[in-house]
Structures are given as structure tokens and as C-alpha cells.
UniProtKB/TrEMBL annotation:
PANTHER family: PERSULFIDE DIOXYGENASE ETHE1 (PTHR43084), PERSULFIDE DIOXYGENASE ETHE1, MITOCHONDRIAL (PTHR43084:SF1)
Name of protein: MBL fold metallo-hydrolase
GO molecular function, one term: hydrolase activity
GO biological process, one term: glutathione metabolic process
Record keywords: Hydrolase, Metal-binding
Domain Rhodanese per the UniProt entry, residue ranges: 381-468
InterPro entries registered for this protein in UniProt: Metallo-B-lactamas, Mito_Persulfide_Diox, POD-like_MBL-fold, Rhodanese-like_dom, Rhodanese-like_dom_sf, RibonucZ/Hydroxyglut_hydro
Domain of life: Bacteria
């Protein structure tokens, strides 16, 4: 048996390729939408991708199940659990619908679907058996059910998908899934989750790639609640102190349920000259995306540009500032090369931002402006309408600048009704990265923004005698 983990640091998301080396057949579980990594990996091992599936209707990225099935001719498999409100839509009409106990067989290898509701009602996990070695499962792909050190949060349907108090039923269902379908497994069964540290799908995810049933039973925060059959204590602990859910999650939920559009072969990106980009910007036909670090952006950037720094977190930050359902102007990226621009485009495709049109390799010759900033020791001297902390609410609770309001960067552009229409808004995060991303989108929307230089870290480092109170 072959089992490979493909990890996306941007979204802290894991997908898996499992194959039988005897038959040369493979299945991909929880693929993202830029499918090159799976095709390359299968080719490296001389395998054919004949099946593709997912653990549930994802909220944090756009599923690549349809994309990969269309490209390879593989059979798609999706959950048929959870009731009519959680049935996959028309985009999955040709997919096999799986109930609890359904098996996908690839030569000697078997994946058995286990209905593990809680994070979502339709959620499936997969028990993997290597038939060449044993007739007992040795691995469980847990999706967003069990993470290393944590479990999937059941409140995302309320936080991002318009649900009303679904978190309570989800939390109780999660307790039952742990009791009935996880802790009944042998301690040696390896746990392979769909997310790692940094994902918003849980609150205490570990950075280690895998765990075991026995380790989670003994050392996870929730293990003692299950051992003592303390369901109410588990529910209360699970629902407390969850981080903010990004607003784009609602769009992902809807599109993943209906069926994400299949992209197929991507168009060639246009390389803009300075003159061409100046005309396109003047005519408001494109949006310029400055991909540099915020310290460079503050030295001068294109007016009304979006700051989506680098390749590492382009999907995360792009989804904060660009909504493809309301904004139709194509994007032009600042990138060192065509290859770099294509990598950034791949990241954006993962969250359904499909209209990257081109790139330019320099800002030389473009009209530049310096974003407004304010030094931490002068914060008390600026006339402002709002001091806005764009960190997560758990960070805000741990310490913030007195007088600040909190709204995380992943939610601001969907809740501008909570912002003053006139006056200066001073924004900050922890070190400045998230602040620059959010501030760029607010400026583009017409708000008067001043970024706090060095953000909360710089303000906190001031001597008490010089630190402004607000």
C-alpha cells in the first residue's frame, strides 16, 4: 500500500493519495482545486487515479473533487449522510453517494466510510485496510472530525453559513461520534486529519502530521470528558473560546455543496508592460495586487491596490479582501516571474478566485502612493473615528490597546456596516501583516485608514511612561 500526505501550508490543509501498488490504482481524499500535485505524485509512483472523494462539505477551501474527476475520469464519491439539508447538489449527479459502511476497493486496499457527524452532519471518516498485510484497519482519515490534539469545531455552520444554534446539536453529535466510532478502535490505529496548526477549523490543532487513537484517548483535552462520560462538560469546553470564522467560509460551503465549477486547462497569464497597466488602471479595468511584504508596501504602492503578500498565504489573505461574487474586475499580480505568478494563481484558485488575468514584474514607472501610518507613541495624538483591532477575538481577549474595537481581518469586508462612514480608522494586528492586508481593502473601498506602525507588538514594547492609553 502507498499512502502519501499532500499538505498546503497556506490553508493548513491535508489531502491524501492512497494506492495499491499491485493494481496500480489510487484514490485521492480531500483534494484541493489545483490538482497538479496529485497528478505528479500518481505519475511518480506509476499509479492511475481511479477514485476521488472527500470527507465532508468543506468551509475553508474549494474542493477539487470534481476537478480531479473530470481530468482523470476517476469515479467521484461523496457522502449521502446527514439528511436532505446536507445532500450534495447537481454538480455531483454522477458521483457515487456513500452511506455508513460503504467501501471503496483498490486492489488490496479498502477504504470504509464511517459516518462521524459533529463538525458537519454529513461528515465521513475513512478506515483504511491494507489487505496485503491484514484484514483489520490500521489508519483512519478523520477529515475535520479528529485532529492532532483537538476535534473539529461544530459552530462553523452558525459562524459562517447562516445556521442558528446548530452548534449545540453538533457538539452533542461529536461526543457520540467520538464515543461510538473513534474510541472503539484499537489504540494503534493511526489518525490522519485534514488540517494542522493554523487552520480555523479547530481551536487547538497540533503541528504534528499524525497521531494515534491511543494517544488522543490519553492526551487530548477532550479525552477525560469521554472517559468520565461527561457530555455536558465536553460540550461547554468545546464551544468556548473558538476563533473567528472567516466570512468567505459561507461562499465555500455553498459552492462545495452545489459543486465547484470545473476549471479545466488554465489560460496563459498576460505579462503587462508598465504602459499597458497604467492604461488598465486608469480605466479601472483591473485590480492591482501588490504581493510584497508590508514594509515594502509602506514605501510606496499603487493607489487602490490590494496587498496579498507572497505565495505562502495568498489563498488565505486573498479570500479576506476579494469576493468573486461581488467583484468582477480581473487581477494583475506583482510577481518576480511568470512561474511565481502561476504559483500565486494556484493558491487563489483554492478559494475560488479564478480571474487572475496577468502579472507585472516591477512597479517601476507606476504611479505610487505611501499608505498612511501612525507611530505607536503618537497614537493618542491622532484624531480618529475608530481604533480597529483586526486580530482574532481570542488574541484580542488576551490583550489589546484600550479603546479598540475588534473585528478579525477575515470578516471586516463583509461587515463594513459596523465601521464609521467618515473620519480616520486606525487599524492594527499583531505585527503588521494582517493589518496591511485588511487596510488595503478598506482603502480601496474608500475608507480613510491609518495603519499603526509595528501594530500591537510595537505598542506593547513601548515603555509604560510613553505608551498612549488609547
Amino acid at each position: 500500500m502507498l499512502l502519501e500526505r499532500i499538505y498546503d501550508e497556506d490553508l493548513a490543509q491535508a489531502s491524501y493519495l492512497i494506492g495499491c501498488q499491485r493494481s496500480g490504482e489510487a484514490v485521492v481524499v480531500d483534494p484541493r482545486r489545483d490538482i497538479g500535485a496529485y497528478l505528479d505524485l500518481a505519475g511518480k509512483h506509476g499509479m492511475r487515479i481511479v477514485a476521488v472523494t472527500e470527507t465532508h462539505i468543506h468551509a475553508d477551501y474549494l474542493s477539487g473533487t470534481r476537478e480531479l474527476a473530470a481530468h482523470t475520469g476517476a469515479t467521484a464519491y461523496v457522502s449521502d449522510e446527514g439528511g436532505p439539508d446536507w445532500t450534495y447538489g447537481a454538480g455531483f449527479d454522477t458521483a457515487v453517494r456513500m452511506k455508513h459502511g460503504h467501501q471503496i476497493t483498490l486492489g488490496n486496499v479498502t477504504l470504509e466510510a464511517v459516518h462521524t457527524p459533529g463538525h458537519t452532519p454529513e461528515h465521513l471518516s475513512f478506515l483504511i485496510t491494507d489487505g496485503a498485510q491484514t484484514n483489520e484497519p490500521g489508519y483512519m482519515l478523520t477529515g475535520d472530525f479528529v485532529f492532532v490534539g483537538d476535534v473539529g469545531r461544530p459552530d462553523l455552520l452558525d459562524e459562517a453559513a447562516g445556521g442558528v444554534d446548530t452548534r449545540f446539536a453538533g457538539a452533542h453529535a461529536l461526543f457520540a461520534s467520538l464515543r461510538d466510532h473513534f474510541l472503539t478502535l484499537p489504540d494503534y490505529v493511526q489518525v490522519l486529519p485534514a488540517h494542522g496548526s493554523g487552520s480555523a477549523c479547530g481551536k487547538a490543532l497540533g503541528a504534528i502530521a499524525a497521531s494515534t487513537v491511543g494517544y488522543e484517548r490519553r492526551f487530548s483535552w477532550w479525552g477525560s470528558y469521554l472517559a468520565n462520560d461527561d457530555e455536558q462538560g465536553f460540550v461547554e469546553a468545546l464551544l468556548s473560546d473558538q476563533p473567528d470564522a472567516h466570512a468567505y467560509f459561507a461562499r465555500m460551503k455553498t459552492q462545495n455543496r452545489v459543486g465547484p465549477a470545473v476549471i479545466g486547462e488554465l489560460p496563459t497569464l498576460s505579462e503587462y508592460t508598465t504602459a499597458e497597466l497604467l492604461v488598465a488602471l486608469a480605466e479601472d479595468r483591473v485590480i492591482f495586487v501588490d504581493t510584497r511584504h508590508h514594509s515594502q508596501v509602506h514605501e510606496g504602492t499603487v493607489a487602490r491596490s490590494l496587498n496579498v503578500p507572497g505565495e505562502a498565504k495568498a489563498a488565505t489573505y486573498g479570500s479576506w479582501v476579494y469576493d468573486p461574487e461581488t467583484e468582477f474586475r480581473p487581477l494583475v499580480l506583482l510577481a518576480d516571474s511568470r512561474a511565481a505568478a502561476e504559483r500565486i494563481r494556484d493558491h487563489l484558485i483554492r478559494v475560488g478566485i479564478d480571474n487572475v488575468q496577468g502579472f507585472i514584474t516591477t512597479i517601476e514607472g507606476l504611479s505610487l502612493v505611501r499608505p498612511k501610518t501612525v507611530a505607536p507613541d503618537r497614537l493618542g495624538q491622532i484624531d480618529r473615528a475608530l481604533l480597529l483591532d483586526v486580530r482574532n477575538r481570542t488574541e484580542f481577549a488576551a490583550g489589546h490597546i484600550p479603546g479598540a474595537d475588534q473585528m478579525s481581518g477575515g470578516r471586516v469586508m463583509w461587515h463594513t456596516d459596523g465601521l464609521p462612514e467618515t473620519g480616520t480608522i486606525v487599524t492594527y494586528c499583531q505585527s503588521g501583516v494582517r493589518n496591511s492586508v485588511t487596510a488595503s481593502a478598506l482603502r480601496r473601498a474608500g475608507y480613510d485608514i491609518a495603519e499603526l506602525e509595528g501594530s500591537y507588538a510595537a505598542w506593547s514594547a513601548l515603555p509604560d511612561a510613553t505608551r498612549p492609553a488609547a
